[in-house]
Amino acid sequence: MESWKQNKAVFWVTALPGVVWLLLFFLIPLALIWGMSFGEKTSIVDIEITGTLANYLRSFEAVYVKIIWKSIWISVISTAVCLAIAYPIAFGICFSPARWRPLLLLLVILPFWINLLIRTYALIAVFRTRGTLNFTLEWLWDLAFLDKLVGPYQPLELLYNNGAVIVGMVYVFMPFMVLPLYATIERLDRSYLEASLDLGASQWRTFFSVTVPLTMPGIVSGIILVFIPMLGMFLVPDLLGGTNAIMIGNVITDQFKAANDWPFGAALSFLLMYVTFAALAVRAFIGSRMKGGVGV
Amino acid sequence: MAKRKSTRGPLEYGKSPWLILFGIVTFIVLYAPIAQLIAFSFNDSKRNIVWRGFTTKYYAKAWNDASLVEAFVNSITIAVMCTVIATIIGTATALWLWRFRFPAKAAVEGVMALPIVIPEICMGVAVLVLYSRVGHWMRGFESGPIHWWNELFSIWPLNLGAITAAHVAFSFPFVAVVVRSRLAGFNREYEEASKDLGASEWQTFWNVVLPFMMPGVIAGALLSFTLSLDDFVITFFTAGPETNTFPVKVYSLVRRGVSPDINAASTVLIIITLVATIIAMRMQAPQKSEG
Amino acid sequence: MTYTPKYRASRRSVLKGSGAAFIGLTMLPRFAMSAEEKKLNFYNWDTYIGETTLADFNKASGIEVKMDLYADNAELFAKLKEGNPGYDVIIPTNDYVERMIAAGMLDTLDSSKIPNLSNVADAFKDATFDPGRKHSVPYMWGTLGIGYRKSKVKDASSWKAVLEENENSGRISLLGDGESVIGVALQYLGHSFNSVVPAEMKAAEELLIAGKKGVKVYADDNGQDLLASGEVDLAMEWNGDIIQVMGEDDDLSYSVPGEGSLLWQDCVCIPKGAPHPDNAHAFINYLLDADAGALIADTIQYATANAAAKAKMDATYTGNPGIFPPDEVIAKCEASLYSEEKTKLRNESWTRIQAA
User: Fold this and answer.
1) N or C: which end of chain A has fewer CB within 10 A?
2) Domain extents for chain A?
3) DSSP string, A3-56
4) Complex-level ipTM beyond the 0.90 threshold
């Protein structure tokens, strides 16, 4: 890494586009909303920025803490499942014949060019009581004469519970995990793996002691790209979840829509951001201490 | 070599039957709902539960729905514009953060990660507030010297500029993340060697750094295309009657159950993408040998 | 065998692949819009207009109507709150009409441009939420009730069937709209739909939390779909939605529970900043036309406020108690009244119910 003073022209050429764009179309609008989180509603449409902390204090009421906690564990499980599925897939694509790779990569991404809502509804059509999965299972059940032996097939109730929310999350966010993993595994120096195997380590040992540490940047990027949007997700719990599916994303959305309480919605959003931001900062700090930084 | 299937090398994971099986199962799970969606777009029933006969009438219905087609075209236009801009900006940002040491870098990195971190709805509302303020302010110029500005931005596709700008803002940090994780493995000695051999900064970038980070750039571009094409929440707040996108249109249509014409429109989208991709891959096939 | 990474081939191929895909996609015919003035932007609910109404209006007036859809009033309100993005005609429900008037978001209507106002039924000529009908014209009205599967449900004459545990538990869907669900729970407990009395609100909240065991899902206005697809046997829904699916499935029925229910009225309004106010007036006038109104009522199966249109409909529509409930049922129903305080309390309570 070089000091910015060494090559000012390149520094500014690479720095400015991102910084300017972020400032104009993200930081300025965000600052408006941030101001709002310290405001109060004075009428149906007017919000006055009074510097109050009431919105933040309200976020610590038991009910919101409970919902935030639930959002976190649902997202943690979904991210873990995502990683467990995406890693072998990305790995397999990288080790497949070169001419197959672009096609396989496209196969992973293609479903995600279909609208999120349509995909979620497609999932519903598969999992509902009178859906494809239950019809198939019933057909198999009858095929095995279980209807004669045990009794008629009882359809599984697969939708409208936390499991369905997790399945939906994994289904929706898979490519965000596969892509960064692919990018890192692809540039993995295979001679390290050979060396490890030559020195007598088993395939599993090689995987966990060599491959995983070497692809850590990809894993970390993948986790960030998947976990954080999951935290704020509201459509999936809304469509697939049952009566207690509410996540923090739903509460925030409600504040901006039905409740018409933008200051509180802004405060909740920023609370979520402060927490994630702190976590990222801690990670970056540890990362830079350890080995010159992997960075976001 | 292709004949010796039985003797799998220790690193030929691509031939591991377990990995292949896992891949196949994953792809089946990934595609089953979509296959069903495509099948139901031909189903002669509004309810989509049991098969009631083959029909293509929903395709005609989707095609004749001018607002659906318009939303469809808008979406793809925005996604393409967004991908081009976001990939360039994201790659530049990744290079910047990877290459330079500068004061307050950790803070800048954190700020760059904000669009990834922020709940979509919050950003949607933020952009809505910004644009409505700018809109009020611009309306003040209705008769002034820059009145042409407003007219210019009501012409297609410039009227999609506002949505595209917001899409770029939330997708370029994703590109930066992916490209940077790729760059983390770059051996800078190559870059130095190139410069020692007399290459300029630009030549070094173009011939050494860019080829190395290309997989990251492509992955990032695909990611931003996907993000933009699929974005509903942020677009919802910025779209007006003239600038509807496909997700916003679909959202309003599926809230009360998916109708088969939406399935038909999605099928068309899948097929167009698939065909264009296959043609493109065929076209570049002869160059394979050169690699 | 070599493991040297071969960047060029594979990377370029994907790049070119996606590049060509982009080009292919942008070659689609573009349906550009000219800046013609004969246009109207209509923001409406889904399935809430006659099959050919917009085309007929175009034929009659030459004005091309572009319709966008919203899923609920809150969405409409959120979208227009910071300024009108270009809509000319909207259809909010009574309490939101009141809210939007209070927020100064609606234009005043010029009744001289709407001669068909004379077609409006007498009962709707004035309204408490819009005294003198300065900002709104009645469109449709209806009730909230229970849609149910006759072969599976014995008794749906009380809100008990969906609010408390019973033999159909686990096969019930409620609306995802907290204000209405809590309001109905209050009515079941014998209070007003609009109550903000803390003790009554608390009782309703406890009732709904206890009843969660029996409820499968809080549906986003797609209860009729869940009912028709057999996912649930009882659904709290708007009458017209259920009546639309009843036409496809004889086993379904609709009831307005005896404890009373919500009586609502959707109104046609022009939001402030509408770019084509003259076209908007012409369109509103057209909606109130007898034939056009009858066509709409026939498609959407909601009760029309247009007396001339109702007169043209046959008895299967006018005599349907699901659409036009008997007077004694209406007498027990209440309209939702607007109040920011109520909205706030209801939303907090709804969050607690969902998190419980």
Assistant:
1) N
2) 69-291
3) EGGGGHHHHHHHHHHHHHHHIIIIIHHHHHHHHHTTEEE-SSS-EEE----HHH
4) no
Identify the CA nearest to C84 among candidates C268, C273, C270.
C273
- Pick one of 1.10.3720.10, 1.20.1560.10, 3.30.2010.30, 2.120.10.80 as the CATH number of A69-291: 1.10.3720.10
Q: How many CB atoms lie within 10 A of CB A51?
A: 8
Q: Where are the domains of chain B?
A: 39-275
**CB-based contacts of C173: which residues, under 8 Å, 6+ apart?**
C215, C216, C217, C218, C219, C223, C226, C227, C231, C232, C234, C235, C236
Residues 157-186 of B with CB under 8 A from A: 165-166, 168-170, 172-174, 176-178, 180-182, 184-185
Joined tokens for residue C46:
């889904």
What CATH homologous superfamily does B39-275 map to?
A: MetI-like (1.10.3720.10)
What domains can you pick out in chain C, each with its CATH number? 39-136+269-325 (3.40.190.10), 142-261+333-355 (3.40.190.10)
A120-147 residues labelled b (16+ CB within 10 A) or e (exposed):
bbbbbbbbbbebbebeeebeebeeeeee
Nearest CA in chain C to A66: C355
For C211-264, write each residue's pLDDT tens digit: 999 999 998 878 888 898 888 999 999 998 899 889 888 999 999 999 999 999
Q: What residues are paired with C143 via a beta bridge? A: C263
Mark which residues 131-190 of C lie under 8 Å from B by CB. none
pTM: 0.84
Residue B139 in contact with partner chain C when CB distance is under 8 A: no
Radius of gyration of chain A (CA): 24
